Amino acid sequence: MDADSDVALDILITNVVCVFRTRCHLNLRKIALEGANVIYKRDVGKVLMKLRKPRITATIWSSGKVICTGATSEEEAKFGARRLARSLQKLGFQVIFTDFKVVNVLAVCNMPFEIRLPEFTKNNRPHASYAPELHPAVCYRIKTLRATLQIFSTGSITVTG
Amino acid sequence: TTWPNTDCFSEVAYSQSTGQKEQLSRCLQRGIRRVQDLCKVLQLPTVFEETAVSYFQRALQHPSFHLVSLEKKELLGGCCVFVTCRQHNWPLTMGTICSLLYAKQELFASVYLSLQKELGLSVPALSLGDLVKTHLNSFRLFQHAADVPAPFVEDKEKMVARTMQIVELASETWLVTGRHPVPIVTAAAFLSWQSLQPAARLTCTFTRFCKLAGVDLPPPAHLRLKELLEIFLRMASQLAWLRVFNMDKKTVVKHIGDLLQHRIFLLKNAFCLEDEEEHRAVALGEGSPRSPPAAGGTAQEEGCPSEGKRQREGGARPLLPPCLINPRKRLRTAAPSTSDSAITGNEPISDSEIEQYLRGPEEIRAFRKAKAW
């Protein structure tokens, strides 16, 4: 690829993970009984609740910690998290929406060229590590940004962090 | 009662009296012994043993490995040996270590990745050339045996040389990148063995070959074999004296020797290389063959333009990873609408929106009755 070629790359955010706290104890059994779209995982002590709009899945612990996954932007993640907190309020819990934080964003991008992974790894040590016996992609860590890239031979790159 | 004479018992810390000589904990001692035994079984040089033991000691001092289960500590020893071998370019595969430790590969993989991350170890990738030699060492086709028919016995040097050439060809044609190496080597070994005496060996199946050789047949090896044969068939279509014949997957094996001898020329002709196509397109004034890629990334976008393809004899295919040639169907995600992109996260929440996520009283009663909570 030429350095001066002007090719636009689409970076698509596929998942945003956020957390928040309700500052109150949550009765998981009550949520499982009175909430709709709910899965109660009694063995691990959590409840999964899914919202339709936005399409997110929340994992709820009795301590009041909630993790929301599935949003496609940080604003959408907050949008869904607030709706979830409101649902818990309607179920009768004294919910206070606090400590909201986006903890992980997953994005996908496609390069317009294939990548020879063994040569790429050799030229990018120690950031890059490649173990084809475990995973078909090269794992490239950027410590300063706390980001991890999975680079596939097809040119597809997944960024998490 | 008399009190015992306690003058002889002064307060001494355990580490100063007994513990001073106990430098290593029992767990660490056992682990070190296990690492040393593993090195002896694999017949590794002494320097490997010292390095593996030092990695193991460093790892056990790390908080992430203090409180792990004994099973994981055993695997940790195996991981240290594995990393040491890789750093010295000793061709040891994960499968070998897992079979020696009777471990599940998933658990071994998680311990290995943790070790690599916590100790910041740089582990070079496995050298395919060394793996070919080591893997073929375990084949039982190089000496006469009761269960191996005479025509099936082969000269080791010839087979290693031809297998290396086929593996190099696989590497050039995108069959190796991102894939597990052992199935490729097994498939290449089978093709090289068949091609060295095709008359007697063409009727032997891949499964029977692996059984006779005394090696496992990993599931992806059949797919790798199919991909290799497709590459050879494409190359055969460019060889002048083979064009008149109707080649198929059986008959092309007889000509693998010729195909490997002329592989650079045949690869150039049989497959459309991107650089050549760009030059041709620029010369014809067609402009850049690459359009801005969409997020999907299909073979059509990254390969030759269709005009370039038609111009070549025999319809040269672009040299791309197989997953781009035969892409799986991808679900199209809806493009974000303008209303979605205007979300701030602080919009007001209506009751009706929330009520869809709550059960009504009758529903709760019916649910309670059904679940008998």
TrEMBL record, chain A:
UniProt main location, coarse: cytoplasm
Pfam family, one: TBP
GO CC annotation: cytoplasm; nucleus
GO biological process: DNA-templated transcription initiation
Cell cycle found in the keyword field: no
PANTHER family found in the cross-reference section: TATA-BOX BINDING PROTEIN
Protein name: TATA box-binding protein-like 1
Organism of provenance: Thalassarche chlororhynchos
Automatic annotation (TrEMBL), chain B:
Coiled-coil stretches noted in the UniProt entry, renumbered to this chain: none
GO biological process: transcription preinitiation complex assembly
Region entry Disordered, spans: 284-348
Composition-biased stretches (Polar residues): 335-348
Domain of life of the source: Eukaryota
Gene3D superfamilies reported for this sequence: Cyclin-like
Protein name: BRF2 factor
Native organism: Thalassarche chlororhynchos (Atlantic yellow-nosed albatross)
